[in-house]
Design a protein that fits this description.
Organism: Variovorax beijingensis
Pfam families: PseudoU_synth_2 (PF00849)
InterPro entries: PsdUridine_synth_cat_dom_sf, PsdUridine_synth_RluA-like_CS, PsdUridine_synth_RsuA/RluA, RluA_PseudoU_synthase
Protein name: Pseudouridine synthase
Structural class: alpha+beta
Strand content: 25-35%
Order of helices and strands: EHHEEEEHEEHEEEEEHEE
Shape: globular
Distance between the termini: 57 Å
Number of strands: 14
Oligomer: single chain
Length: about 300
């Protein structure tokens, strides 16, 4: 349904979710939904249908008795029974008719995922700015703080999205890492081949043609820690975190590398020391040179 209005409006910052109906022998659409999403009770689906919160791609309500029909897309609102607030606030640094630039706190995901719905940067901004068409142009990890760019208008979104794979945007990060006495430098560039790890949440390095590249600058050292500037040339998942670990200096408070911590082990007093500090690019719509810098900063621990 690209370029078309969705059959359900955004509600409280959350757009409708969509599921396609595959070929099958379910007697009703309701029976398929109950089987497809076992975490949602039959009673909950019946209540949603009664409230006309489940519709097909044409906006026709799905009732409890409506026969199964494939292929068809069904839209509904995702909900969570209880969602704890992440105790940090985002900041809107820039807004015009095309772009929103936000500064994201750590622990807040960019988009709804898993147990996070209202507590995502996208939904918070949709509620705050009343912009139902807002879409992130890129992602940073939930643990990472800093800049995230959003597209306001669907008509120009593709032009902004193309900047990332075409490497027409300069991104700079800061990171605090452990530092060994006697070391005086870092490699100016680090390249490696990154592939999926056995655990779906992580990636790892393997031998072969490099597919990731990071430029590294040493900014400051204090005692057993250093402040690095990291400039990713490529944008692989967890690239900066894995590259720092491979160099023997895993980013401070990283919950994934080198040891994957259990879920629900967030320590709000120990955020990952990785910050998406600045971005710069030539605006593909206006032609202006734009640059944005996060007001956040990372501090080295005292000696």
């Amino acid at each position: 349904m690209t370029g078309q209005r969705l059959p359900l409006p955004t509600r409280d910052g959350v757009g409708p979710s969509c599921v396609g109906l595959p070929q099958g022998e379910w007697p009703t659409i309701a029976e398929f939904l109950i089987e497809r999403f076992p975490a949602i009770t039959r009673e909950a689906w019946m209540a949603r249908m009664e409230a006309r919160d489940v519709v097909d791609e044409h906006g026709v309500p799905v009732t409890a008795q409506r026969r199964y029909q494939a292929p068809l897309r069904v839209y509904y609102y995702r909900t969570l029974d209880a969602e704890a607030r992440i105790p940090f606030d985002e900041q809107v640094l820039f807004q015009d008719d095309q772009l929103v630039v936000a500064d994201k706190p750590p622990f807040l995901p960019v988009t709804p995922t898993g147990k996070y719905l209202q507590e995502s940067l996208l939904v918070r901004l949709k509620r705050k700015l009343k912009l139902d068409d807002l879409v992130p142009l890129h992602r940073i990890d939930r643990s990472t703080a800093g800049l995230v760019l959003f597209s306001v208008r669907p008509e120009t979104r593709g032009a902004y999205q193309a900047m990332f794979p075409e490497r027409r945007i300069d991104k700079h990060y800061e990171a605090v890492v452990p530092w060994r006495p006697g070391v005086s430098s870092v490699p100016g560039t680090y390249r490696s081949r990154l592939v999926d790890d056995d655990h779906f949440m992580r990636v790892k390095e393997e031998a072969g043609e490099p597919n990731s590249e990071t430029r590294i600058t040493l900014r400051k050292t204090v005692g057993g820690h250093a402040l690095l500037e990291l400039s990713p040339v490529t944008g692989r998942k967890h690239q900066l975190r894995v590259h720092c670990m491979a160099l023997g200096m895993p980013i401070v408070n990283d919950p994934f590398y080198p040891v994957l911590l259990p879920p629900d082990s967030d320590d709000f007093d120990k955020p990952l020391q990785l910050l998406a500090k600045s971005v710069a690019f030539e605006d593909p719509v206006s032609g202006e040179r734009r640059s944005f810098t996060s007001p956040r900063s990372l501090a080295l621990p005292p000696r």
